């Protein structure tokens, strides 16, 4: 997938993750895209490495959203601890 495609998928996954996760996440578009991209890459790598699914399957999208939600929780805890 191209860089532009990866950014678009990251944006979609990041927005879905922010919609699913409860609470107020006041972060910009760039951070949403970055968390979505990282969540997608981590979930895709782990799922493929464990043999749970192949790249491009629906399970990969679901795992990408779950990975991004987990990263949002971690980001929120780190940000709250810093304040």
Automatic annotation (TrEMBL):
Residue ranges annotated as transmembrane are 29-47, 59-78
Pfam families, per database record: Transgly_assoc (PF04226)
Compartments (UniProt record): Cell membrane
The record describes its membrane topology as: Multi-pass membrane protein
Alphabetized, the UniProt keywords read:
Cell membrane, Membrane, Transmembrane, Transmembrane helix
Similarity-based family = Belongs to the UPF0410 family.
Q: What is this protein called?
A: GlsB/YeaQ/YmgE family stress response membrane protein
Q: Which organism is it from?
A: Comamonas brasiliensis
